[in-house]
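Researcher: Please predict.
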Amino acid sequence: MAVDYLIWIIGIGTALEAITLLTYVILHGQVTRFENVKGKILHTAKRARRSYVVYYVMILIFGFLAYFSYSEPRAALIYVAIISFTILEIVHDSARIVLTDRQIVISKGFIVRKIALFYYKDISYVEVNETFGGRLLGYGDIKISLIDREFTFEKIGNPLKIKDIIETQKLAM
């Protein structure tokens, strides 16, 4: 009985690692595209994984409950947990902001990708919003306002660091 549980844990762990690796390989192309951006890359940020900690815990609990249940759709429930985990990883990697010494590059989307590039001189102001939980876990929302539009990033790790880099580079221009 204990061997069955060990095999199950190793199997699920291997499946999750494979899915995570596949998602990383697919989405890593976004980062390598930014190597052609003019200037030195100062900072790259994406959604903070720790902002999804509640969802990850719920998926784990759901997966364990599904496995230890004696009902018929046990395998289907485990696959639902794995698919939910994969969707969270895609959401985690689908938005990215890259700060260089000359410009800011924003990439959003997984299937349909939108990339925006603008210079620091075009920024009107930068606003950071952090909830109590976000402050404890180190993530928040950042809104970058340009002359004609706004960009909002939700659940970005270290938003104050991003704001400081943007303001420093804006003053240097």
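Model: Helices lie at 2-33, 53-68, 74-93, 132-137, 159-172.
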